[in-house]
Design goal:
The chain has 688 residues and is an alpha/beta fold. The chain folds into 4 domains: 216 residues, UDP-n-acetylglucosamine1-carboxyvinyl-transferase, Chain (Alpha-beta prism), CATH 3.65.10; 226 residues, Enolpyruvate transferase domain (UDP-n-acetylglucosamine1-carboxyvinyl-transferase, Chain); 111 residues, Rossmann fold (3-Layer(aba) Sandwich); 89 residues, no CATH class. The protein has 23 helices and 34 strands. It has a 5-stranded parallel β-sheet with strand order 28-32-27-33-34. Strands 3-17-19-18 form a 4-stranded mixed β-sheet. A 4-stranded mixed β-sheet has the order 5-6-4-15, with helices on one face. Helix 5 runs parallel beside helix 6 and helix 16 runs parallel beside helix 19. The longest helix has 18 residues. The radius of gyration is 30 Å and the shape is elongated. The structure holds shikimate-3-phosphate and phosphoenolpyruvate. Belongs to the EPSP synthase family. Keywords: Amino-acid biosynthesis, Aromatic amino acid biosynthesis, ATP-binding, Cytoplasm, Kinase, Nucleotide-binding, Transferase. Its EC number is 2.5.1.19, 2.7.4.25. InterPro entries: Cytidylate_kin, Cytidylate_kinase_dom, Enolpyruvate_Tfrase_dom, Enolpyruvate_Tfrase_sf, EPSP_synthase, EPSP_synthase_CS, P-loop_NTPase, RNA3'P_cycl/enolpyr_Trfase_a/b.
Length: 688
């Protein structure tokens, strides 16, 4: 997950390959609750691991439900089977509607049956999302429900610690036109009280988001409860209904998450060797209503083939065909259509989406505002959005910093704007908001997208030994969410690998052509990985060894061999991957990435650097004298400056940063300020 303040997307060019998507949020949270309420054990496979499911799991755990983990996506729920081991708890449910609404109903009923009381709260936005209609329905049943903040909104308290008889004889009336989750909540909870008599629910007003009720009914059936219904108005839970665990249940991939990749296939030219995007884990047999996004994308021109559990998407009509669509059945995936509309041949109208106003943010206002930033004309009605496309020749598109309102879907759907024909990059603010349903969304996206190599931004930090390049580069990479190339380590790795292979790395030996050629071959075959601060040579973790002074000296000797430098050139350039790279070394800006967006030449006085090196060694428990260290540094500086291949000097256009008197944070800020001013968010050279 990108936990950075923002993520800059370079212009994207092509896409192709296969994605396996995380589990459905709607199915995961329903299955978790049903399993917890059932008798017996349920093993759940392919469960979504995200903020929304985590709050549900934490709540179930706090309620005394035993959860046995087998892995991040697999667990066994030991059902409560009518018991309630914990009678009082405060549950924090984040911004998960699928946790707040169903738990509110289930706990209200359990609280009445067992004489318990529970408080339910969430993030600030959750306290602006309505729940009053559900509370009203629960009060009809005789359940005490108290709003602890604003009337009609969470936080709330269900139950009052005393048992209450439930009033089940009359139909329970619930409004269906604000959120379908109120009806879902009742449907999931009421089988707890239907042992003796049938319970009827009557929907007041036109039910919205109907396919989500179908998910609820399908999953209730898997847990042994067959709800009878008349259209969308009347639902009956038959007398004698009782949850029965299916034993094992698999969660299909999230169809709303699939919409971003279906859209990707519809707008991106396939990358070489691929015919488009393949999505695995969800297909035409899905029980999720958002699978109907496939029809909308087809109507816009996408070529989609589907099987039970997979989809293949290719770009068809281009520009896309404009649509005018009632999106009430696909409220979540419809946001993706709003961005696809930018690539259409006329204005697209998305209708009947008033519920957008009470989701993670006011999505009608948010989409209008952010689409407008890209240059589009957008009409926002009370319950519709009309998006006028931007020209296919690229004129009129603007780069933008997309505000994401802590709404995962805003972040995910706007990533598709990086395919704009103007080849403009764009910034996604607070990318970690995708954690609600798809923590690895951007990693998955980058796994199938391609940018033109020259568009992938590189920030080079070059400079002499012990100037603090490594620390600065690692911190910058972390703040920008970029890959990191510690090129100094590559040379150290060659040095280490050479010594292990029995090659003589003494300066004199390296003058011999045969020896130099052997070293070049070894460098070419180097199997190196940098992973979470560890360095791997083949299957061996060599993190500590590679940082030793001995490896450093060997690195400095092998680095002057032209054959080694040539072999490492390709290896280093391969680190230039989406979304960008921070490269730390001595010739990053001058030789390896001469077209880098920003080159920094980092220096500090030799005395300062010797002092820092001494502290570093002391921290590791090694001893040295400042005098020796200074002499070593000066000798190494001299060797670096005077070597014939790529001598150490500031690259053309490099900005000089002397950090002798700067803290790490000050250096980081300085470089970030330069980076903000660099051409990353600016039109590509092609259009200038
Ligand atoms: O029941 C569900 O799983 C959901 C129902 C929909 O909400 P509304 O019924 O409020 O539209 C949907 O937007 C939400 O993401 C998930
Ligand atoms: C509306 C959404 O979430 P929630 O389940 O919190 O309602 C959503 O995921 O788009």
């Amino acid at each position: 997950m990108y936990a950075t303040a923002f993520l800059d997307l370079p212009p994207l060019h092509r896409a192709g390959g296969t994605v396996r998507l995380p589990g459905s949020k709607s199915i995961s949270n329903r299955v978790l609750l049903l399993a917890a309420l059932s008798q017996g054990q349920t093993r759940i496979e392919d469960l979504l691991d995200s903020d929304d499911t985590r709050v549900m799991l934490t709540a179930l755990d706090a309620l005394g439900c035993r959860l046995q983990r087998h892995g991040p996506h697999s667990l066994t729920v030991h059902g409560l089977g009518g018991q309630l081991p914990v009678r009082q708890a405060s549950l924090f449910l984040g911004n998960a509607g699928t946790a707040m609404r169903p738990l509110c109903a289930a706990l209200a009923l359990l609280a009445c049956q067992h004489g318990a009381a529970f408080e339910l709260s969430g993030v600030a936005r959750m306290h602006e999302r309505p729940i009053g209609d559900l509370a009203d329905a629960l009060r009809q049943l005789g359940c005490p429900v108290q709003h602890l903040g604003q009337p009609g909104y969470p936080p709330l308290r269900v139950g009052d610690g005393a048992p209450h008889a439930l009033r089940l004889a009359e139909p329970i009336r619930v409004r269906g036109d604000v959120s379908s989750q109120f009806l879902t909540a009742l449907l999931l909870a009421l089988p707890l009280a239907a042992q003796q008599q049938a319970i009827e629910i009557e929907v007041v007003g036109e039910l919205i988001s109907k396919p989500y009720i179908e998910i609820t009914l399908a999953l209730l059936a898997r847990f042994g409860v067959a709800v009878q219904r008349q259209g969308w108005q009347r639902f009956v839970i038959p007398a004698g209904s009782r949850y029965a665990s299916p034993g094992q249940i698999h969660v299909e991939a999230d169809a709303s998450s699939a919409s971003y990749f279906i859209a990707l296939g519809a707008i991106a030219q396939p990358s070489l060797g691929h015919s488009g995007i393949t999505i695995e884990g969800v297909g035409l047999d899905s029980i999720q209503g958002d699978i109907r996004f496939v029809e909308a994308a087809r109507a816009m021109g996408a070529q989609i083939e589907g099987s039970a559990n997979a989809l293949q998407v290719r770009r068809g009509a281009w520009p896309l065909k404009a649509i005018d669509l009632d999106c009430n059945a696909i409220p979540d995936a419809a946001m993706t259509l709003a961005v696809l509309a930018l690539y259409a041949d006329g204005p697209c109208t998305l209708r009947n989406i008033a519920s957008w106003r009470v989701k993670e943010t006011d999505r009608l206002a948010a989409m209008r505002c952010e689409l407008s930033k890209l240059g589009a004309t957008v009409e926002e009605g009370p319950d519709y959005l009309r998006v006028h496309p931007l020209p296919a020749d690229g004129r009129g598109w603007q780069t933008a910093s997309i505000h994401t309102y802590d709404d995962h879907r805003v972040a995910m759907c706007f990533a598709l704007a990086a395919f704009n024909p103007a080849q403009l990059g764009l910034r996604i603010e607070d990318p970690k908001c995708v954690a609600k349903t798809f923590p690895d969304f951007f990693e998955t996206l980058f796994g199938v997208c391609q940018a033109q190599p020259s568009h992938i931004p590189v920030l080079c930090i070059d400079g002499p030994s012990a100037s603090g390049k490594g620390t600065l580069a690692a911190e910058l990479a972390a703040r920008l969410g970029y890959h990191l190339l510690d090129s100094g380590l590559l040379y150290r790795l060659v040095g280490l690998a050479a010594e292990r292979a029995g090659l003589d790395t003494a300066a004199a030996a390296l003058q011999q052509p045969q020896q130099a050629a052997a070293l070049g071959r070894l460098a070419q075959q180097l199997l190196v990985r940098f992973e979470q601060g560890r360095v791997w040579l083949g299957h061996e973790d060599v993190t500590d060894e590679v940082r030793s002074e001995a490896a450093g000296m060997a690195a400095s000797r092998v680095a002057v061999v032209p054959e080694v430098r040539a072999a490492l050139l390709d290896l280093q350039r391969n680190f230039r991957r989406l979304p960008g790279l921070v490269a730390d070394g001595r010739d990053m800006g001058s030789v390896i990435f001469p077209d880098a967006a920003l080159k920094v030449y980092l220096t500090a006085s030799a005395a300062q650097r010797a002092q820092r090196r001494l502290w570093q060694l002391q921290e590791r428990g090694e001893s040295a004298t400042i005098k020796d260290l200074l002499a070593d540094l000066e000798a190494r500086d001299e060797r670096d400056r005077s070597r014939s291949a790529a001598p150490l000097k500031p690259a053309e256009g490099a900005l000089l940063l002397d950090n002798s008197a700067l803290s790490i944070e000050q250096s980081v800020q300085q470089v970030l300020d330069w980076w903000q001013a660099s051409p990353v968010l600016r039109p590509s050279a092609a259009l200038e």
